[in-house]
Structure prediction request, 328 residues.
Amino acid sequence: MLSAPSADREGNVRQALELADAGCEILRVAIPDKDSVALIPAIKEACGLPLVADIHFDYRLALESAAAGADKIRVNPGNIGDGNRVRQVAEACRTRAIPIRIGVNSGSLEKHILEKHGHPTPQALVDSALYHASLLEQCDFTDIVLSIKSSDVGVMMAAYRLAAAQCDYPLHLGVTEAGTRRIGLIKSAVGIGGLLLEGIGDTVRVSLTAPPVEEIAAARDILRAVGRGRGATVISCPTCGRTKIDLMGLAERVEDALERCELPITVAVMGCAVNGPGEAREADIGVAGGDGCGLIFARGEVLRKVPFDKILDALLEEVEKLREERNA
Ligand code: SF4
Prediction:
């Protein structure tokens, strides 16, 4: 989600480009007023990523955003007024094949739903999302995506599980108000990653109280952790008394060097030959540290022994060979 002030068109474009460069696949921008609708063509032209217009309450902004080229509208139909307004928004989106994302969270529940459930239970959240969806369904509009977020990871997971069981709409996963970098990443990893491992979820957003580029890095790491990422995965051991090389530094350098590697491979960086070779054999490429040196493995075979300061180069050479083989 872009976080530059809405009035700052250049700032938003700059941030969109930065996020695209970091691997973002879908952008969302807040459209709080008429002037900010102009952000939509500006951002789309600059970076070409699908763009979601985030609207609250004003159906006219949804209509204008659809006309301005938004690829998805995030709006809750129950918050935009009478049925005629909902119908106009549904119609504007239908004619342009634009999906609508409904987003509910613990703080946004309707009075009648809160009264029924007492507090924001998982089922209350799902009921709220399905209530908003029903308003669109009444307009024969079903190109709907649901997000049902909570800052409580257990509630969020239970709600998405219920939603997956109770409807066929695609689900956009997220833990809302997850917090700052560290705790936010952990909560998101548990909630989003856990659901993805259960086969639930179609798109994700990591919400951090941090620059949005860090949300992209966090999302990428979560996807990698559950085997849904792109590019290289680095596995590394925690080190122990047997480690005789600077494995922590090496693992970080390998991770940095492979940050943009698009090959779907696993690279193992292991501290010693006790467990290292076994793990490294499972990986596409690996190193097991020795005394000031490393044994390089590729596809299960020991290739050679190299001095410590040549380990990174040797691993990258093997990655390159693998790339050539796969491209051949
Ligand atoms: Fe220790 Fe070797 Fe295991 Fe790393 S791989 S934790 S150095 S035994």
Remarks:
- Residues 237-240, 242-243, 270-272, 274-276 surround iron/sulfur cluster (CB under 6 Å).
- Residues 281 and 300 are 4 Å apart (CA to CA).
- Residues 9-225 form a domain with the TIM Barrel fold (CATH 3.20.20.20).
- The chain has a mean pLDDT of 94.
